[in-house]
Design brief:
GO molecular function: DNA binding; DNA-binding transcription factor activity
Shape: globular
CATH architecture of the largest domain: Up-down Bundle
CATH topology of the largest domain: Four Helix Bundle (Hemerythrin (Met), subunit A)
Number of domains: 2
InterPro entries: GntR_C, TF_FadR/GntR_C, Tscrpt_reg_HTH_GntR, WH-like_DNA-bd_sf, WH_DNA-bd_sf
Order of helices and strands: HHHEEHHHHHHHHH
Radius of gyration: 19 Å
Keywords: DNA-binding, Transcription, Transcription regulation
Pfam families: FCD, GntR
Oligomer: single chain
Protein name: Transcriptional regulator
Helix content: 55-70%
Length: 253
């Protein structure tokens, strides 16, 4: 008989109770994510940010939160707002760096993020294995629709929306609804650390989506699982945790 977990022990998957970002306000998490993306070179000087609605959806916060965060970032010299029909919010031409103290919460959660990525690898590789056997044409059509949406995306916010739908459609295609709640919790917690990424990088990621889709259509379960595993494992290097480590080593050198 299985032993019962002692009261207060962490669950089988990463507990959100200990996350440093949970102690950070919603406004400050937006400030930190945009500022960290600037510090890591993911957002370039002069780059236009998506509109408030798209940014809010991509970062999982309300539009008022985004507006307040951008107002503060403008005062801090990270972004500039320009009026008029061609205006909007842009990364400053010479953005101030390392101005948002709350970035420390993201660095503090580095180990937790790597653990969430590993949990996602286990779940998605398993989903891919089953989806290769069970996904019907309607399911493949949903994946195709997501791929087209990501190909047509004009901002990281639009791409992120398509990416989330692609991975959820694949998970649902495994035909294992009892595991979906676990998957949605893991990805939901991981998406809280999502940063804006250059579109060129994201389009390369979509080529991996196409290869995964092709393996599923061919009913090649082993290839689909391996491609999905490698695709998600790349987050260890491409998410801010890996990029921050690289940047810090460069500064130390």
């Amino acid at each position: 008989m299985a032993t019962q977990e002692p009261s207060g022990a962490p669950s089988a998957l990463t507990s959100s109770a200990l996350a440093a970002i949970r102690r950070t306000s919603a406004v400050d998490t937006v400030r930190a994510r945009i500022s960290l993306a600037v510090d890591l070179g993911l957002l370039a000087p002069g780059e236009r940010l998506p509109n408030v609605r798209a940014t809010a959806a991509a970062l999982g916060v309300g539009e008022i939160t985004v507006r307040r965060a951008l107002t503060t970032l403008e005062r801090e010299g990270v972004v500039q707002r320009r009026p008029g029909r061609t205006g909007g919010t842009f990364i400053a031409e010479r953005p101030r760096r390392r101005t948002v103290a709350q970035v420390a919460a993201y660095r503090e959660d580095s180990e937790r993020v790597h653990r969430l990525i590993d949990e996602r690898i286990v779940l998605e590789a398993g989903f891919a294995q089953l989806a290769a056997e069970r996904l019907d044409q309607a399911g493949l059509d949903r994946l195709d629709e997501c791929v087209r949406e990501m190909d047509a995306a004009e901002s990281w916010a639009e791409f992120h929306a398509g990416d989330k739908r692609f991975h959820l459609a694949l998970a649902e295609g495994a035909g294992l609804p009892s595991a979906l709640g676990m998957y949605e919790r893991v990805t939901g917690e991981l998406y809280a650390y999502f940063l804006p990424y250059p579109l060129d990088y994201l389009r390369g990621s979509n080529e991996q989506h196409k290869a995964i889709r092709a393996a599923l259509a061919a009913r090649d379960a082993a290839s689909a699982a391996a491609l999905l595993r490698d695709h998600v494992a790349e987050l260890h290097h491409s998410m801010y945790v890996g990029l921050a480590d690289t940047a810090e080593r460069g500064e130390d050198g």
